[in-house]
Amino acid sequence: MVLAAAGSSDPAADAATRAVAETWRRSRGWAGVEVAYASAAGPRVPEAVAALREAGADTVAVAPYLLAPGLLPDRIAAAADGADLLAGVLGAAPEVAELLLRRYDDARLAAAVPAALSA
After folding, report:
1. What pLDDT was estimated at residue 41?
2. Quick check: 27 pLDDT over 90?
3. Which helix (H) or strand (E) holds 31?
4. Average pLDDT of the residues in 31-60
5. Residue 68 has what DSSP assignment?
6. Confidence of residue 96 (pLDDT cuts 50, 70, 90)
7. 20, 66: one domain
8. Does the first or last residue of the chain, that is N or C, have fewer Cβ atoms within 10 Å of its Cβ?
9. Closest C-alpha among 5, 16, 13, 70 to residue 38
10. How many alpha carbons lie under 13 Å from residue 17 in its C-beta half-sphere?
11. Which residue has the higher pLDDT, 112 or 54?
């Protein structure tokens, strides 16, 4: 499996993507999970696909770690020629909406606490 993310100059974002890939590797029983990036320094999708093939993977899937269609998912799809499967973007998954709402509520509550303390 190739987890293909947008890429970021923020090391924390890269670490988070790698943590997801590691969780997938441990929990799914796959031969391996490689991270690739569409807009940052490599590895790129073809390199990740090649690494999995070299490690003995018979079937390689590419999963864009992006929310919506657009330029970056198109780059990932164009670069996934050597893969056997290409998943769609995350899209309107209920889990994504729930996470966004939970984070909004957390941020709203966190902002209310300092305001209450200064009153």
Report:
1. 77
2. yes
3. none
4. 92
5. S
6. confident
7. yes
8. C
9. 5
10. 23
11. 54
- Rounded to a whole number of angstroms, the distance between the first and last alpha carbons of the chain is 52
pLDDT of 112? 85
As given in the structure block, the two tokens for residue 47 are 């390199």
Distance from C-alpha of 31 to C-alpha of 33, rounded to nearest angstrom: 7
Residues 9 and 32 in one domain: yes
Looking at the DSSP bridge assignments, the partners of residue 86 are 62
Which of 52, 36, 32, 35 lies closest to 44, judged by CA? 36
Rounded CA-CA distance 48/45 in Å is: 5
Domain hosting residue 52, numbered range: 2-88
Q: Do 84 and 96 have their domain in common? A: no
> Do 23 and 52 have their domain in common?
yes
Contacts of the segment 27-30: beta carbons below 8 A, 24+ positions apart: 28/1, 30/1
pTM (2 d.p.): 0.81
Residues 11/37, Cβ–Cβ less than 8 Å: no
What average pLDDT is seen over the chain?
Answer: 91
C-alpha to C-alpha distance for 90 and 39, rounded to whole angstroms = 18
